């Protein structure tokens, strides 16, 4: 009882809204550091070269990523820490009251995405991330009591950024499944994950759709002209339409009262920068700052990689991921942008809803 009262007082006096983050490498802040068998890691230099003290934290970035900047806009110092970093029950309780990051580089909406044939834990799938949140849900009920925990979670924010790896996997496998059927299967998986989170008390969802992944340096290398791979971009656009329909349905579906969402159109946000970079203060929107080969997109960003000097002028940090500057712009747009980029409300309005 004393623990519950102390925790309740802590929650009431906090000024920031609790944040729970799920997804892939676009939001991972070190989850995969705790997976010894994973190849999807960034806990080595020059990753983190612009992070405080130049630390390679496991973020796929030269500094903060979008999860960090969104958290900062909500009053945090940076993103909440990864769930797998908690090694005591007291740490779990503390961060369950503030927010936790579950995102894992390489993961996807489908359970097979990012998994290798080896018997190692390569990524934390989104299904596993939801199960991890179940542990948080149980902790909150124990500490706060069932009714207060329900109220607490209804006011919390759930940010999700995922889906690119599923599309990459489908495209590279040359699957015989039709594009329409594949996108539908992704939508069904997303809907299931959202419903499972809703059952655990989540009500306010900030969803980030898939950017024009065909324009990543890693994909430009396969285009003789150096242009984007339009087939990948078409899949990203189709997924955005599917996701829009799912969110609208859940928003009005009986049994999901209180379901509120904000959908960030990462495709248009990014493509507008690629097509007209100057107003956004970018000078290179094709080449990775860190890597090797054509467009710096043929080799990973590691200590042997070629590294640009003016990182704030680059859209891409490595073969797949945005720079700190690009992530900051994305978070600001999601937080305060208009309906072209984020709808039906932006993330700031979601936090206040």
Automatic annotation (TrEMBL):
CDD domains: SGNH_plant_lipase_like. One of its GO terms (molecular function) is hydrolase activity, acting on ester bonds. InterPro entries: GDSL, GDSL_Est/Lipase, SGNH_hydro_sf, SGNH_plant_lipase-like. Keywords: Hydrolase, Lipid degradation, Lipid metabolism. It comes from the Eukaryota. GO terms for biological process: lipid catabolic process. The keyword Hydrolase applies. PANTHER family: GDSL ESTERASE_LIPASE, GDSL LIPASE/ACYLHYDROLASE FAMILY PROTEIN (AFU_ORTHOLOGUE AFUA_4G14700). Belongs to the 'GDSL' lipolytic enzyme family. This is GDSL esterase/lipase At5g55050-like.
């Amino acid at each position: 009882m004393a623990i519950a009262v102390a925790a309740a007082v802590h929650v009431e006096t906090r000024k920031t809204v609790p944040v729970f983050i799920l997804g892939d490498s676009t939001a991972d802040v070190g989850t995969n550091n705790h997976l010894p068998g994973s190849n999807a890691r960034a806990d080595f230099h020059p990753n983190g070269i612009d992070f405080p003290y130049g630390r390679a934290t496991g973020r796929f970035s030269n500094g903060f990523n979008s999860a960090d900047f969104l958290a900062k806009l909500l009053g945090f110092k940076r993103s909440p820490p990864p769930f797998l970093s908690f090694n005591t029950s007291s740490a779990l309780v503390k961060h369950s009251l503030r927010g936790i990051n579950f995102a894992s580089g390489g993961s996807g909406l489908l359970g097979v995405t990012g998994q290798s044939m080896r018997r190692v834990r390569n990524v934390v799938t989104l299904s596993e991330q939801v199960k991890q949140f179940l542990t948080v849900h149980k902790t909150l009920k124990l500490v706060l009591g069932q009714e207060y925990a329900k109220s607490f979670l209804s006011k919390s924010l759930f940010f999700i950024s995922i889906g690119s790896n599923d599309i990459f996997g489908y495209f590279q496998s040359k699957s015989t499944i039709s594009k329409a059927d594949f996108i539908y299967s992704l939508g069904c998986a997303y809907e299931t994950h959202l419903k499972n989170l809703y059952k655990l008390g989540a009500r306010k969802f900030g969803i980030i759709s898939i950017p024009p992944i065909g324009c990543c340096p890693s994909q430009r290398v396969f285009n003789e002209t150096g242009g984007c791979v339009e087939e990948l971009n078409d899949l990203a656009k189709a997924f955005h339409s599917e996701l829009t329909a799912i969110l609208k349905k859940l928003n009005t579906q009986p049994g999901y009262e209180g379901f509120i969402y904000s959908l960030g159109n990462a495709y248009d946000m990014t493509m507008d920068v690629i097509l007209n970079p100057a107003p956004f203060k970018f000078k290179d929107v094709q080449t990775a700052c860190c890597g090797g080969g054509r467009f710096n997109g043929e080799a990973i960003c590691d200590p042997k990689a070629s590294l640009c000097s003016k990182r704030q002028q680059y859209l891409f940090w490595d073969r797949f991921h945005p720079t700190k500057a690009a992530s900051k712009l994305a978070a600001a747009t999601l937080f305060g942008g208009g309906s072209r980029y984020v709808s039906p409300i932006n993330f700031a309005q979601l936090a206040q809803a």
